[in-house]
Write a structure and sequence with these properties.
The chain is mostly helical. The protein has helices spanning 3-11, 21-38, 45-54, 61-72, 77-102, 113-117, 119-143, 147-177, 182-192, 194-207, 212-239, 242-245, 251-254, 260-268, 271-282, 287-300, 303-321, 329-341; strands at residues 106-107, 110-111. The chain has 18 helices and two strands. A two-stranded antiparallel ribbon has the order 1-2. A hairpin with a 2-residue loop joins strand 1 (106-107) and strand 2 (110-111).
């Protein structure tokens, strides 16, 4: 990877949340360069929408996970770089579709694709980015990755994609039933959010030629990291504001979404308190007033603190899973990355 690419990425301000800033900047330079050029024909609506969705780049968590997982097992990042680009395309596709489901107008601090271009066209853009994920994996043939590894990686990505859809469907069921069950919620987030983390880590391991036990260790790491990541996302509407988190703090409330701080607050409340939570979560009235009521309740009952503790435990379990891998700077960065995932502001 040419050194000037690393310089370009540093100039674009890699988020502080990423551990080992110089090393990560170098790894991500190729990802950003490819993402930036991927949808720039300028002649089609699809290119415009996909470029809008992909830029500015987010934290690029999933590409980092894939690259570091490969390096932790002795892999060459140049060989798996296209797959890292695909990991971001797949993730952004899920965000485009999430914003349609939630009718969110903001994403990463700017208009969502569905708000900027309309729902129908946004669905097509999300679909195109999903196919780009598979095309990116196939590109690894040109870099020299053996075909059997690519087939195994495609198998992992396909099944994780189905798990993501199962998680999304399960979330809809929980919200419709207003089911304040923490275990069901945790199963859902392992599917909905953990799936793409798992796909990234296992793909990196498989493409690098990792042994089955190493692939499993990275998959376990990723599932726990994904759960912690989603729980931390659940906390942000109660600890930040729209400007800091890049989307409306009212999004979960407006969609009647059950999140862990609210579920735990419900569990810790008396009958009257539970009714207040339910009424403010799905009832009528000023959304801002309802949100402020829920903020007060999740703090007063300890729901917020308990959710933070749960995220912390998942991170501890994630880091423990890495101990199966041989010691390396990449293993250490994965552990640091997990720590940083529950310290971010968006």
């Amino acid at each position: 990877m040419p050194p000037d690419h690393a310089t370009v990425v540093r100039d674009q301000a890699i988020p502080d949340v990423l551990p080992g800033a110089d090393e990560v900047s170098f790894l991500l330079s190729g990802v950003k360069a490819r993402l930036g050029a991927r949808w720039r024909s300028g002649s089609e609506l699809l290119d415009e929408m996909c470029e809008h969705a992909l830029s500015p780049p987010g934290k690029l968590f999933r590409p980092v996970l894939l690259l570091e997982s490969a390096r932790a097992l002795g892999g060459d990042v140049q060989l798996v770089l296209p797959a890292a680009v695909g990991a971001e395309s797949g993730h952004v596709a899920s965000l485009v579709h999430d914003d349609i489901i939630d009718d969110d107008d903001l994403r990463r601090g700017k208009p969502s694709v569905q708000h900027a271009f309309g729902v129908g066209d946004a669905i097509v853009a999300g679909d195109a980015l999903i196919f780009d994920l598979f095309a990116s994996l196939a590109e690894c043939r040109k870099t020299g990755v053996p075909a059997e590894r690519i087939v195994s990686a495609l198998d992992v990505v396909s099944h994780c994609g189905i798990d993501l859809c199962r998680g999304q469907s399960m979330e809809s069921e929980l919200c419709r039933r207003l089911d304040f069950d923490a275990e069901s919620y945790l199963t859902m987030v392992r599917l909905k959010t953990g799936a793409l983390f798992k796909a990234s880590c296992e793909c990196g391991a498989i493409l690098a030629g990792g042994a089955d036990h190493d692939v499993k260790a990275l998959g376990d790491f990723a599932e726990n990291l994904g759960a912690a990541f989603q729980i931390h996302d659940d906390l942000l509407p109660y600890t930040g504001d729209t400007a800091s988190i890049g989307k409306s703090v009212l999004s979960d409330l407006n969609n009647g979404r059950l999140t862990l701080p609210v579920i735990l607050a419900h569990d810790r409340s008396d009958t009257a308190g539970r009714r207040t939570i339910e009424r403010n979560l799905v009832g009528a009235g000023d959304p801002l007033v309802r949100w402020r009521t829920l903020v007060a309740i999740v703090n007063r009952t300890g729901g917020l603190a308990a959710a933070k503790a749960s995220a912390r435990q998942f991170i501890d379990d994630a880091i423990a899973a890495l101990r199966v891998l041989p010691p390396s700077p990449s293993r250490d960065r994965l552990a640091s990355f997990a720590e940083a995932a529950i310290e971010r502001e968006r």
